[in-house]
Design a protein that fits this description.
Elements (H helix, E strand, L loop, with lengths): L19 H8 L2 E5 L3 E4 L3 E8 L5 E12 L5 E7 L8 E2 L3 E3 L13 E8 L7 E8 L4 E4 L6 E3 L3 E8 L5 E14 L3
Antiparallel strand pairs: 1-7, 1-13, 2-13, 3-8, 3-12, 4-10, 4-11, 4-13, 5-9, 5-12, 6-8
């Protein structure tokens, strides 16, 4: 049995295997960004969120988030889906497409919002998890590979619980991709 292929025999096709997030970056659908510095404490809470506008016509697939604690006390963050957040959110200008080779650079439809020093808690929606971040540390959760699918008019948010006597400074970063909804 000969393993040498003759010139007239077909070669197997070349196959590239890309992870889901790399594939969406290649297509110009993967984005990353961060909030402003978020402040809370003294009885006041705060939050940061990825918000998919109701008219976006896309689903947002969460791939990663990080929480950076710039303070000298631990912080506690709750994960929420599709909740109504207190206060008014400020839209972050800190975002970029993963694929910078596409011109013009793709723009996300999903918005990054954050709010500091809010007096109440989220209402409605689904409380999904809690995370604790030690002083001067960054917690990274990644490679969700789209396990969280956020439809138009919904959100993924991290809500920071106030410590009693301290003020905390934090920042959130996110990685996600967007896919058009088949209609």
């Amino acid at each position: 049995m000969s393993l040498v292929l003759m010139d007239n025999e077909k070669q197997p096709p070349k196959v590239n295997v890309l992870s889901e997030n790399v594939y969406h970056s290649y297509l110009g659908e993967y984005f990353l960004g961060q909030t402003d510095i978020i402040s809370f404490g003294g009885g006041y809470n705060a939050w940061g969120a990825l918000v998919n506008p109701s008219d976006s016509k896309i689903n947002m697939f969460l791939n990663a988030y990080t929480i950076t604690n710039f303070s000298n006390v631990s912080l506690t963050a709750e994960g929420w889906l599709s909740t109504t957040l207190p206060g008014s959110g400020k839209t972050s200008p800190y975002f970029a497409a993963g694929n910078q080779a596409i011109i013009p650079t793709p723009m996300p439809k999903v918005k990054i919002l954050n709010s500091s020093f809010v007096s109440s808690k989220p209402s409605g929606g689904t409380y999904t998890f809690v995370r604790r971040v030690e002083p001067s540390q960054t917690l990274t959760k990644h490679d969700f590979q789209g396990l969280y699918i956020i439809p138009p008019g919904s959100s993924f948010s991290l809500f920071f619980l106030s410590p009693v006597n301290s003020q905390i400074y934090a920042r959130l970063a996110f990685g996600w991709w967007e896919e058009s909804i088949c209609q």
